[in-house]
Design a protein that fits this description.
By secondary structure, this protein is α/β, with parallel strands linked by helices. 69% of the residues lie in helices and 7% in strands. The protein contains 16 helices and 7 strands. Strand 3 and strand 4 form a beta hairpin. This is Hemolysin.
Length: 428
């Protein structure tokens, strides 16, 4: 039989067991609470990461949509809308309303939604990034977020919208229309503020200089050829030119007295190259009409060459020297005339202008009649006039006339050349 353990030892062992048991009972809840806290912290961290991703992606996606819609909307041209009216009238009406009539509302809706996306994204993503990464990494996250917004929600979508705007026009119109309806109260406030700033001033889409520049750009890009570009540019300069800018000056006009016999007129070298010859009564200030070279030839073959050319005379139109080329062309077409006398302020004859001169100015090329062998008939007129003056022995007058021509005839001729041909080749 074993001896009983000493009382002190028994007491000590008992106290040890009780102490261990008590500590265990006390520590169990503490460890359980620590494990629960770790689980809660892990769950919270996962939620923060998920919300961070949601905030970042939502901000980028909405901003991407707004940027591409803005680029597409601003890239739509009036000519595209006009062409769409014949293909899809309903789409054309919607696009025209968003692009033209309600462009302020469209831009206000896009910019409002884009600002909301950036603001909410920055606040939400910033808060969750601070919770996930801590304040030490918050600066790096902000830099990365800025780059993502710059490239993924600004540069990339606007480039895509500007390049592929034709195929994105219809879906963009639908999305922008929904934006306007969803953000209508904010848009109304924005409109009132905008009207206060602009004071109701209309914004013109294009001006004349921009059309001329577009013609040059179209030629450089290969969309139109050189001649088409030249005609477009000349067309916009057409209204600024006057009859006196393109006329054949008086000093080199080949004209005949109306009493001259037909056979003599055909022998007159200065008139042979021209198809329409002015005729006058006393001098060039009393031009009474013109004759056709073909009529003179027909009369000669019929044996009536001895008769005066006044019998073949046709009426001629008189126009003021300041008549614009657009009005002059309209006059030629309405009157079915090809030649006109240009008169000054006091009714004096200043020169001769033809429909060919007007069309040449517009097209930038010389028009040659079937019977003409020389392209520039005005240059030929000056040559013949100088030869005639020299043959009559009036050389001094030739020099004086050349000086006069350099100030009157040459300046007018140079204006024609510079504004018909140089304008055709000048760069806008």
């Amino acid at each position: 039989m074993k001896d009983p353990e000493p009382r002190p030892y028994t007491l000590t062992k008992t106290l040890s067991i009780l102490t261990t048991t008590g500590l265990g009972l006390f520590a169990a809840p503490v460890f359980a609470q620590t494990e629960a806290t770790s689980a809660v912290a892990s769950t919270t961290m996962n939620q923060d990461i998920l919300l961070l991703i949601v905030f970042v992606l939502s901000a980028l996606a909405v901003s991407f949509l707004c940027s591409i819609a803005e680029a597409v909307l601003l890239s739509i041209t009036p000519t595209y809308i006009a062409g769409l009216e014949g293909v899809s009238p309903k789409k054309a009406v919607l696009i025209k309303r968003l692009k033209g009539e309600n462009i302020d509302r469209s831009l206000a809706a896009i910019l409002t939604l884009n600002t909301i996306a950036h603001t909410m994204g920055a606040i939400g993503a910033g808060a969750k990034a601070n919770a996930v990464f801590g304040s030490a990494w918050f600066g790096l996250f902000s830099a990365i977020m800025t780059l993502l917004i710059l490239f993924l929600s600004e540069i990339l979508p606007k480039t895509l919208g500007a390049v592929y705007w034709r195929s994105l026009t219809t879906p963009t119109a639908v999305v922008v229309n929904l934006m306007i309806k969803a953000l209508y109260p904010l848009i109304v406030v924005s409109e009132k503020i905008t009207r206060m700033v602009t004071k109701g001033r209309d914004v013109h889409v294009f001006n004349r200089d921009e059309f001329i520049a577009m013609a040059h750009i179209g030629k450089e890009a290969g969309h139109i050829n050189d001649r088409e570009s030249r005609i477009i540019r000349n067309l916009f300069h057409f209204g600024s030119l006057r009859a006196q800018d393109i006329m054949t000056p008086r000093t080199v006009v080949a004209a005949l007295p109306q009493t001259m016999p037909i056979e003599h007129a055909l022998q007159y070298r200065m008139t042979v190259p021209f198809s329409r010859i002015p005729v006058f009564d006393e001098d060039l200030d009393s031009v009474s009409g013109f004759v056709l070279r073909e009529d003179l030839l027909i009369a000669q073959t019929r044996g009536t060459g001895h008769r005066p050319i006044s019998e073949l005379r046709r009426d001629i139109v008189a126009v003021a020297a300041t008549t614009s080329l657009s009005n002059l062309l309209e006059l030629f077409l309405d009157k079915r005339q090809h030649v006109a006398i240009v008169v000054g302020e006091y009714g004096e004859t200043q020169g001769l202008v033809t429909m060919e001169d007007v069309i040449e100015t517009l097209l930038g090329i010389e028009i040659v009649d079937e019977g003409d062998k020389i392209e520039d008939m005005q240059q030929l007129a000056r040559k013949l006039w100088r030869k005639r003056a020299e043959s009559l022995g009036i050389k001094n007058n030739v020099q004086e006339s050349r000086a006069h021509a350099s100030t009157e005839s040459e300046s007018s001729q140079n204006r024609k050349r510079s504004k018909r041909l140089v304008l055709a080749d000048m760069q806008s």
